[in-house]
Amino acid sequence: MFAAKKQGFNADETEVGVKVTVSQEYAREGQFPWTVVLFKNGRFLGGGSLISERVVLTAAHLLVDISKEALSVRAGEWDLASASETVDPEERNVSSIELHEGFRYSNGVNNIALLYLDRPFELNDFIRPICLANREWPSRPNRPNHPSRPDRCQVAGWGKRSFSDPHHSNIKRQVKLPLVDRESCQCLLRRTPQLGQSFELPENMICAGGEYEKDACVGDGGSSLFCSLDGEFQRYEQIGIVGWGVKCGQQDVPAPYTDVSKFRDWIDRSLARHCHEPLIDCQYMVPRKL
Residue 142: its pLDDT value, please? Predict the structure, then answer.
C-alpha cells in the first residue's frame, strides 16, 4: 500500500507523508515540556516525548537503519534557531534503541519505538515527562472521579507549517485536533484516491484531525498526540504517536496515530528489560505550575 521512505510512508512522494504541526499558533516557551527533538548526526530528524528522565517514546519509522551513535535527543527546546532562550535546552546521547518487532513500513502498523538515554535529564519546568494513556483508555467510561475521553487533543512539534513548505519550523508549534472514531476515520480515508476502498485501518491506530488547515504535517513523525486530563490544562496524557497521513490539513481527511494504550504491555516489558522503574500513572501526576 505504501512504499517505504526514510521519513515516512509514501504511495506517492507528493501525497502521503510523516506528520508535524501546521497550526498558525506557536507554543509558548516552556509549554508542553515533554516534547523533545531528535537529531541524526546533528541534523533535525523528528520528534518524540519524554516519558521518564531517561526514556523517549517516538515512532519506529524514524529510526530504521540508524545507529544509536548517530542519534541525540534535546529537551527543553523552543526555538531551534535561537541560542538565548530563557532556559538552555539539554542534550543527551542514546545508549539503546528499541523498535517494535512487528513494525511494518508497508502500512505503518506497530509504529512505535523507545530510546534509552546515556544519562537522565535534569527535570525542571521546561523539561518534564508526560504520562501515558493506560490500557482501558479506548473504553474509558464517563463517570465521576474517572478520566473521561475528550473530544479534542493536541500535537506540538517543529515540523513544516504546510505540506508544500520546504522547511520545518524553528519554533515549536501546536494544533488542536478533533478525535475521530475508527469507523468514520476508515470511511473517510477510503474516499481518498491515495488509499481507496480497500484500505483497512489497523486495530492499533486511532484517528484525529480532518479540519481544513489544522493538522500535523510532513517532517516530524514521533511527536505526541496528547489530551488534557479532565479539563485540567496543566495535566496531560499521551494517547497517540504521530505517524503518517494523506497530505496535511485537508477537510474530512483525518490521520491515523499509533494508539499508545494498545502498547502499554510492550512498553512495560521493554522498561523491565532495561531495569527501569514502572511509569507513573496519570492519576498521580501533579499539575504543573506556570
Answer: 45
Looking at mean pLDDT, say which of 85-89, 117-121, 228-232, 241-245 comes out highest. 117-121
Mean pLDDT for 116-139 is: 89
Full 3-state SS string of 100-153: CCCCCCCCCCCCCEEEEECCCCCCECCECCCEECCCCHHHCCCCCCCCCCCCEE
Question: In 54-74, which positions are buried (b, 16+ CB within 10 angstroms) versus exposed (e)?
Answer: bbbbbbbbbbeebeeebbbbb
Question: What's residue 179's pLDDT?
Answer: 95
Q: What does the alpha-carbon distance between residue 61 and residue 199 come to, in Å, rounded to a whole number?
A: 20
Q: Which domains does the chain carry?
A: 3-284 (2.40.10.10)
Band (126; pLDDT cuts 50, 70, 90) = very high
- In sequence order, which residues have a C-beta less than 8 Å from that of residue 284 and are 6 or more positions away? none
pLDDT of residue 219: 73
Give dist(CA 221, CA 21) in Å, integer.
10
Q: Which grid cell sits at 84?
A: 538565548
Gap between the terminal Cα atoms of the chain: 45
Cα separation of 85 and 33, whole Å? 14
Q: Rounded CA gap, 274 and 109, in Å?
A: 24
- Percentage of the chain surpassing pLDDT 70? 83
C-alpha distances out from residue 288 to 35, 56, 195, Å = 15, 20, 41
Q: Cell numbers at residue 201, please? A: 485501518
Residue 140 scores a pLDDT above 90: no
Alpha helices in the chain (DSSP H): 182-190, 264-273
